[in-house]
Amino acid sequence: MATFVSVSRRPIMGLPFFLSPCEPVSLELRRNQSSYRRTKQRLRVKPDASFGFPSDQTQSHIIYNPPSSSPSVYHTPTKFLPANDARRTLRAETPANTSTVEELPSVFKFEAEKKYHLTPSDITEIRKLRLNDPMTWSRGKLAKRFDCSPLFIAQVCQASPQKKEIQKQVLQAVQSRWGAKRRMAREDRKLRKETWGRDE
């Protein structure tokens, strides 16, 4: 009775179960012929028309087709060119494809309509509510009641000294739970903001 033993093509000591757990197993990945054929077929695209030569031109010439990129710092705007510079006439002859500011879309999704409906009596009532009960009548609640922005409420009135003291105590309680890394990060942020004003 004959027994058939299948011999592995790789060395027996190179099989994964013979390696120790600390050694990385390098598995060789081979690409099949079918996947190579599909990739080669998809990459076989025709060149752009701008890279070819015109049919009426027989002599060779330089093709300048740079890739799209950000504006260069070496490109001087027309506004800063001298009056007798030749680049002014060249740019005047070339039609500009850039859009004007009026054609650009708005940065905001919707522009809030400004309202001027509050009377002096309303402002007096806002100050009275904010001073008497600052915990109940916050800037958000006052803005919702009088149909205005919280920024306008902050411009009209300020919180009472008691509310400011409570907010200060809450901030100190939060900061007391900070670790060394967060405290250092906040101090670095404060120093960076101070250097902004000095342009450093």
From TrEMBL:
One annotated Gene Ontology cellular component of this protein: mitochondrial large ribosomal subunit
Region (Disordered): 178-200
GO molecular function: structural constituent of ribosome
Top-level taxon of origin: Eukaryota
Keyword list, A-Z: Ribonucleoprotein, Ribosomal protein
Compositional bias segments (type: Basic and acidic residues): 185-200
InterPro entries: Ribosomal_mL58
Record PANTHER family: 54S RIBOSOMAL PROTEIN L20, MITOCHONDRIAL (PTHR28266), LARGE RIBOSOMAL SUBUNIT PROTEIN ML58 (PTHR28266:SF1)
Protein name as it appears in the record: 60S ribosomal protein L20, putative (AFU_orthologue AFUA_3G05460)
UniProt organism field: Emericella nidulans (strain FGSC A4 / ATCC 38163 / CBS 112.46 / NRRL 194 / M139) (Aspergillus nidulans)
